[in-house]
Structures are given as C-alpha cells and as structure tokens.
Fold this protein.
Amino acid sequence: MSNMPGYSLPPSGIKKLEGLVDQIVANPGRMIDVKQLADAPSALDIRNVVATLPEGITEEDFVGMLKLAMLTESATDSYAAVFLEGARAYNATWLTRFNEKVWVPDEHTHMVPYQHMLRSLGFTDEELNREIKETKERHYEHCCGVTPIELTVYGTIQEFLTDHWHGLIGSVLKEAAPGAARSANLVKRRETLHTVWYRDMSALQVEANPELIAYVGRSLSTFEMPGTTLVPAYGLHSMRWMQTLNVDFNHIAKELVRNFAETAGSVKRSGMLLVEMAVARGYKIGPFQPAFAQAAMNRLGGPGYGLIGEAILEKVGLPVPRSFEGPQDNATRFYSGVFERIRSKMRSYVAERIDVRAITGDTSVKA
Ligand SMILES: [Fe+2]
Ligand SMILES: [Fe+2]
C-alpha cells in the first residue's frame, strides 16, 4: 500500500489505552501454575494417546504438533523484543507495560505443559532443551510492521491462531489423557484472553484514529505465523495436520471476521478493511477488480463501504446489524421498503462473490 497515514493517536485515545492496560494489569486472570504441573507430572503422561490417534495422524505427526506448540511458545522473547522496540519507538507506554507486566510472564509458562508431555513420551531434557535453544537462537524476522497498531493486530491474529492450536491438541488428548487435555485447554484459555486484549487495544486505536484501519488491513494481509520460520521442521506441516484433523476452516474464518469487525468498530469500516485487504492481496470484490472497487467506494463513501461490510458479515454467516452506532456509518438509513429489498439482493450478490481468501489468506487459514 502506497500512502499510509502516519501513526498518531489523540491524548484521549492514549488515555483509554492506558486505562485498559491498568485494568489488565490489575486483573490478569489466573496464569498457569508451573509448580503445580511439576508436582504432578503423571497427570501429563500422554503415552496412552499414541494408540488412540485419529486416522492419518502418525506418532511422528503427533510429536510434531506438540513440539510446534512448545517451540513456538519458547520463542516468546523473540516476539517480545519486537513489541518492545515498536512500543518504545512510538512512545506507547501502555503497550510496554502490557508486555512486560502481563504478556511475557504469562507466555513463559505456556511451553511447560508440553515439556512434561514430551518427557512422558521418552524425550530427554537434553533433547528438548537443544531444540528450544535452537529455536530461541534462530533469527526472527517480523512480518508486519512495528507501529503499535500493527503490533496489536499481529498479536490478535497470532493469539487467535495459537488459541486454536492448543484447542486442537486438547481435542486429540481428551479421550486418553484428560489431565493433559485440561492443561492444553488452560493454555488455550490464556490465548483467548490475549486475543481479546490485543483486539480491544486495536479497536481503541482505530476508534481514536480511524485512518489506522489501513494499517489493520496491511497487517492482516502480510501476517505470517512465526512457527513457519522459527520452527520450520514442524510449522510447515501445520496445514496438513489441520486438514487431517478436519479443522473447520469456515468457523475459523468467521471468528477472524468477528474479531476484526470489532476492531473496525463499524460496518462501514469493516467494509473499508476488506477492500484494503483485497487490494493488498489482489482478490476481486464482487465482480470487480479490487482497485476499481476501491476507487468507486471512495466516491460513494459510507453507504458503499457499509454494503461491503454487510456483505462480508453475511458471507461468513454473522448477523448483519440493523442499525449502527454513528449516523455517518449508518448505511441503511437511506433505504426502506423496496430499496431495502434491492439492497439486500445487492448485498447477497456481493457476498456470493467475495473471496474469503482476501481475509484469511492462503497460508494461515484456508476457507
Ligand atoms: Fe502462548
Ligand atoms: Fe498468548
């Protein structure tokens, strides 16, 4: 994208972000108790799971899934360094505080359950520590820009996808090792919280400066899961494993759209976000080339983007709100009766033709 707006927030927006982080720091929820895990390692014995693996998942695949979780989590300090650098460069003390006080200490606990599980399968500490060390030492190339909005959008997607990953492992463990499944789900719950926090930080920034929606679109378009480069031995198999385990990609796409519709804050801005992403990725919007659609939408303004925002919600099966917060975002107020019927036909027409890959991409999730 060529002409990105500068990153800036009005003091009122910064105050809200500081307030949000105050709340999170005061009430971060229950973190994983690593001592409790160490005291009862038998609960994390997963030897029985091997005999119950779903068809198409070998023991080697299963070990790879666990190692991908453990090693991606072990690289927390690599991501944290990028977050802290960006937060300091833009003087976003709220983001620095969140990272240092809550996020990093929380993330450091996430690999522990997987270390216990892998030990029960016969891996020695020496082997596991060697892989952890290699992962930590690998150069981490950040995919997506370091302004605070790009970082919090990156955080939202990464947390969202790791949330699903821990949940997927939990479902494989559930039958033969319920204690281990509980641990994986404890980690999953932390990632759910992280997703919501980063999403709310993103939403507050966009609310304070709506031009930042362009950064949201760009980060979503360039996002790459760090496991692909930091843990290539396993990360490159993640899509195959998800497909073999029948992951519901449509559900993932729907949840991703729900999160980013909330970040956008209005149906109109959701439409703008989709158009930004379609332009960045080169996917058509309805029958039109994305750049053409963007030019037309910029002339039409609110109602046009509103229609696209509605269409994308319809496409993934989320309810289309009847009325929106601000009058400038209210795309439907121009329509009633017969006009509303025409509009809903147009919406369905556009929805049928939106390529969900504009949102989900080809690699992170598939629709
Ligand atoms: Fe984590
Ligand atoms: Fe997390």
Q: What stands out?
A: Residues 323-330, 363-367 have pLDDT under 50 and may be disordered. The longest helix spans residues 178-208. The pocket of fe (ii) ion (ligand 2) is lined by residues 107, 159, 162, 190-191, 194 (CB under 6 Å). Residues 266-360 form one domain.
